[in-house]
Amino acid sequence: MSRDYANRTSRPAKGRGGRRGGPEPRRVPWIPLTLIVALIAGFGYFLWSIKGSADTAKAEQAKVEAAKPKKDPNALPPKPQEEWTYLKELENKQVEVDVPKPEEIRSAGPYQMQCGSFRDASQAEKMKAVIAFQGMTAQVRKSEGSNGAWYKVILGPYEKKRDAERARHKLQGIGMNTCQIWLWQN
Q: In terms of Cα–Cα distance, which of 85, 116, 104, 131 is closest to 178?
């Protein structure tokens, strides 16, 4: 015999002790209720003990303040003692500064700007053409080294380094970020 547990109907519950139809009397949960009352009583005792200790602390503080001599409210506190020795050392220290003469301030010479160095002369000429479109004149110099010939793209000479910087910023505006500024070399 098979039973249909999914569609079965519930039967009315029988009451305890032969009572029928009436609700069951509820039991009072004594343990949680006792625990809650104990916690509330403990919290109340804690607050009462704090209040008592605060009153005694205030009384002790009032006694200490009463024992202090009255000071002038406009009087300054005493000067603190210095703990550091470097202050005395700095008072006796002499600092020497070399101030350059106006002739020495002048730059060491004219400046040049190198924007590229290539193995192939045609690449150097292409970079020279790009620089020419910006309204600047460049030179292509050939230099022989231990590892072969190099073609350098040079701008200048510039009397002041500031002028060379201005030209470099103009070239950076078109995306040419490889330029370096050096003293002029023939």
A: 116
